[in-house]
Amino acid sequence: MTIEIVLLCIVSFFAGFIDSIVGGGGLLQTPAMLIILPQYPIATLFGTTKIPSISGTSFAAFRYSRHVRINVRLLAFIITAAFCGAILGAYCISIIDSSAIKPVILALLVATGIYTYSKKNFGLHEEKNHSALRQVITGLIFGFVIGFYDGLIGPGTGTFLILAFISFLGYDFLHSSAYAKYVNVATNLAAIIYFAGTNHILYQFAIPMAIFNLAGSFLGTRLALLRGNRFIRIFFLVVVFGTILRFAYDVFFKG
């Protein structure tokens, strides 16, 4: 069991680092759990990953809040919608075949990667021309949808949130990353409530992983705040490419 904890802690550190910048830490953490602890049910492994995820994400949200101005009212609406969506997604994991959703996600990711790469100014400047009401309605919709996805599947949630804040609300990468962390905390908390209530969390793995995830988050947020939007954009593209590879494998090669 010791070697399993060591390996998972190493993975969790890098997951926290990646997740704190552009999301997508679950792309490392979730597959590692499935490979290293294959004897446990998938729901239990998913539930266990939420503890380290929320620790690193909470720290990143705190760090960003000290440097980025947050629209608390708008964020509260989005967090509420994402929380409800995540609860529903966690419940539906046992009754919905997630493999049916993955081809749609793959197509969306490919389009996202192409658009972000070709549009050099995408996410580099704030361009908010929406009314307050439109921002709330838009945030409620994508908050619920992405929250549902996080509860159901999980990996890449932070990346999708950043994309949504840029595409639908016009925020730059730095502000989008900050907002995404708060929403991701809510979706992780919702999933933890559900999985803890159904005894699907392995605390002997989750707690040490949480410590290392937090350490990775500390390093990642520091780097993102120092380097700014252009660095985050490049990192975003790298993570999107990695996410495409992951979902392409699931769709075309995984039995």
Automatic annotation (TrEMBL):
Transmembrane ranges, per UniProt, are 5-28, 40-62, 74-96, 102-119, 131-149, 155-174, 179-196, 202-219, 231-249
In which domain of life is the source organism classified?
Bacteria
Tell me which InterPro entries the record gives.
TM_pro_TauE-like (IPR002781), TSUP (IPR052017)
GO CC: one term? plasma membrane
Main localization category = membrane
Q: In what way does this protein cross or attach to the membrane?
A: Multi-pass membrane protein
* Keywords per UniProt: Cell membrane, Membrane, Transmembrane, Transmembrane helix, Transport
Compartments reported by the entry: Cell membrane
Q: Which family does it belong to?
A: Belongs to the 4-toluene sulfonate uptake permease (TSUP) (TC 2.A.102) family.
Protein name, UniProt field: Probable membrane transporter protein
What organism does the UniProt record list as the source? Arcticibacter tournemirensis
